[in-house]
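Q: What residues go here?
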């Protein structure tokens, strides 16, 4: 009904667009930052983009702008006096429902939404107060919510009157900077649930364009006001914007919208407004909604590499690309970009090797197209270190692993096992490179000083090779590690620039050393005399090979007592020492190792959490999802053997399920796209049922003999998956 009514009201929205263009011609002022026109592409693409580096810059500006901006604030026009309260409005709605007379409700809606002044008159907490702070928008949120919750249940003429009023407000010609009342009106209008309907998208698009074109100072206010919106309504706003972008890209009924060539500014405007909500979400810890709620899975179906190349070529210039707004691109889509970028780099490096060989009139060898690593199982770490050090120039070629003395051919399975065994050995506590913290179930870098940090570089290179070759690793680093790994995301040209240093907080320490972090938290909240009761100084102690060593957190720290006044500084310096300074050389080697393989502008698109998922996959196993996506060869999913198999597997403990996954795929982690991305296959083995199951890890394939009963299948399967190290040829 709303769709039909709204279309009839405007004799479609073409009249609305015509009116706007006539206004534009009448004014003749193209540079007005606030006029409502359909701009040409060039003007629209002047909207400030937010790529990762710009996003960080904007984040900083949001955090560091003064509480009260010093830009001149235009005087607020006097507001009409409106005395209706929430209860008055609710009473009017109830009376209208019972009597069928909606006049009072209609009058309220048509008056309230007729102009920005009226919106403020109705919803501003106190019409006599300016509310010029970022901390308080001055909006009566409860009243706004009640009015919008009731709107969709009113007759069509009431709903149409609201849309008419919004059009009137948007058609006002603004001159000079916006008042805070204007910003309040934009904030309120964005929450209108009518904009979930495609028939209102033309109005919604112009609202979004006006908000996108606001100054950075105005955006600063909108961001801080938005973080006060309730979680449910915040998510609704984000979902509405994502739906708007999706339906403009792939409209179910193209005739509902103007031709794409006439509204190329729709998507850039909506994405810029979405960026404001993303910024608001990042200001709060914990965030209002998950960062994954900003993903738009529709973008998985567009030409992402064209987007990526446009972004690489034009950067943050006037040409719009979704890569300027990486928060909207899903981790699955980012993985595709990184994989294809890696493949292109692999092909380029291999081609260059071939050209060099031919130019020297040497016979080409297929092995030169790969990074060939030959290792002995008995000398795994030292051989791997030597191989990667000798073949630095080949790190960006496709990886192939050979275990000396074994006949296995690497179609992917040997590579997976090499990673698994190497990681297991390097992270063993006896090896001394990493410390395992039982309370947090994660590893952290050992702070012991040594002469050679090359093994830390090896671990970084391993992580890079895993991402580069789409292998998931069972590494348990805390989130802070991945934040440091992207500090900065591109290796600086100046080798004197510090790398792997990031802002760390007590929350980061909680994820590694919760007991110590709890103690420091207690120090911050201690109500007694810190200096007399704790008798601490700005000096910390660490044990290294049985020797206690002291470190000053600041110059002459051993002579500076910790007091109630300086304890915050002490805690911050202590956390920074533990997570940055004490392990700088170890982490710098690790950082350079990772980026020696993974140097790519695609890393600019990633959040630390997304790097972790790319490296480690997900530890959450859903064997029912694996069952649904499994393919069969020689079997049908209804065959008795297959039914036995899934009955047994679904009844396994988590440990046995992980062993099965490792046996069949070479890794016990789930890739980015979930179980379906494993392409798991069960094939019928025509061998005797006395044989154990066999796996081809290169193809994620399990060869299963047709066992006679469930007990025999379970017994043979457990034996097979529990003794699954090494490769052979049949």
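A:
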């Amino acid at each position: 009904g709303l769709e039909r009514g709204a279309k009839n009201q405007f004799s479609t929205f073409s009249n609305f667009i015509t009116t706007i263009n006539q206004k534009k011609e009448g004014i003749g002022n193209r540079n007005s930052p606030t006029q409502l026109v359909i701009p040409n592409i060039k003007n629209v693409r002047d909207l400030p983009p937010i790529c990762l580096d710009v996003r960080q810059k904007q984040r900083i500006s949001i955090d560091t702008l003064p509480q009260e901006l010093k830009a001149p604030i235009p005087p607020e026009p006097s507001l009409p006096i409106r005395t209706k309260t929430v209860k008055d409005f609710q009473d009017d709605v109830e009376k209208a429902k019972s009597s069928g007379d909606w006049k009072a409700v209609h009058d309220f809606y048509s008056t309230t939404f007729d102009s920005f002044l009226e919106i403020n008159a109705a919803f501003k907490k106190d019409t006599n107060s300016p509310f010029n702070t970022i901390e308080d928008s001055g909006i009566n949120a409860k009243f706004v919510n009640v009015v919008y919750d009731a709107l969709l249940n009113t007759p069509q003429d009431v709903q149409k009157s609201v849309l008419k009023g919004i059009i009137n407000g948007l058609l006002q010609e603004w001159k000079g900077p916006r008042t805070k009342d204007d910003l309040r009106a934009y904030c309120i209008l964005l929450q209108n649930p009518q904009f979930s309907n495609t028939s209102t998208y033309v109005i919604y698009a112009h609202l979004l364009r006006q908000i996108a074109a606001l100054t950075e100072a105005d955006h600063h206010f909108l961001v801080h006001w938005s973080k006060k919106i309730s979680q449910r309504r915040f998510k609704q706003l984000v979902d509405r914007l994502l739906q708007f972008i999706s339906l403009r890209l792939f409209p179910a009924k193209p005739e509902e919208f103007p031709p794409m060539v006439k509204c190329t500014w729709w998507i850039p405007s909506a994405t810029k407004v979405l960026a404001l909500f993303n910024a608001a979400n990042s200001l709060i810890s914990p965030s209002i909604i998950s960062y994954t709620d900003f993903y738009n899975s529709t973008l998985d179906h567009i030409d992402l590499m064209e987007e990526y190349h446009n972004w690489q070529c034009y950067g943050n210039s006037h040409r719009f690309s979704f890569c300027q707004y990486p928060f909207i691109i899903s981790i699955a889509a980012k993985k595709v970009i990184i994989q294809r970028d890696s493949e292109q780099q692999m092909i380029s490096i291999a081609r260059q090797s071939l050209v060099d060989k031919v130019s020297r009139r040497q016979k080409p060898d297929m092995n030169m197209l790969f990074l060939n690593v030959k290792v002995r199982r008995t000398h795994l770490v030292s051989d791997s270190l030597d191989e990667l050090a000798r073949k630095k120039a080949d790190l960006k070629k496709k990886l192939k692993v050979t275990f000396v003395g074994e006949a296995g051919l690497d179609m992917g399975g040997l590579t997976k096992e090499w990673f698994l065994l190497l990681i297991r050995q390097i992270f063993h506590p006896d090896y001394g490179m990493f410390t395992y913290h039982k309370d947090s179930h994660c590893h952290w870098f050992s702070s012991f000083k040594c002469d050679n940090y090359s093994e830390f570089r090896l671990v970084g290179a391993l992580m890079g090779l895993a991402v580069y070759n789409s292998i998931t690793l069972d590494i348990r680093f805390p989130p802070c590690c991945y934040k440091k790994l992207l500090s900065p995301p591109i290796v600086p040209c100046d080798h004197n620039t510090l790398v792997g240093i990031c802002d760390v907080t007590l929350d980061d320490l909680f994820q590694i050393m919760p007991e110590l972090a709890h103690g420091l938290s207690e120090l911050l909240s201690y109500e007694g005399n810190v200096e007399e009761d704790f008798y601490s100084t700005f000096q910390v102690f660490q044990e290294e090979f049985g020797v206690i060593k002291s470190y000053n957190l600041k110059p002459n720290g051993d002579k500076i007592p910790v007091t109630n006044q300086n304890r915050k500084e002490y805690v911050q310096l202590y956390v920074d020492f533990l997570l940055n300074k004490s392990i700088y050389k170890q982490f710098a080697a690790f950082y350079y190792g990772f980026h020696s393989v993974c140097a790519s502008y695609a890393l600019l698109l990633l959040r630390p959490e997304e790097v972790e998922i790319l490296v480690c996959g997900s530890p959450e196993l859903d064997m029912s999802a694996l069952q649904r996506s499994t393919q069969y060869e020689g079997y049908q999913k209804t065959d008795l053997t297959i039914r036995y198999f899934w009955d047994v597997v679904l009844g396994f403990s988590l440990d046995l399920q992980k062993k099965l996954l490792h046996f069949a795929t070479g890794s016990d982690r789930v890739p980015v796209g979930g179980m379906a991305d494993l392409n798991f296959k069960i094939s019928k083995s025509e061998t005797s049922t006395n044989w154990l199951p066999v796996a081809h890890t290169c193809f994620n394939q399990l060869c299963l003999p047709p066992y006679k009963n469930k007990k025999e299948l379970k017994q043979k399967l457990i034996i097979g998956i529990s003794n699954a190290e090494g490769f052979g040829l049949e």
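A: Context that may help when evaluating the design: Residues 1-71 have pLDDT under 50 and may be disordered. Residues 346 and 397 are 5 Å apart (CA to CA).
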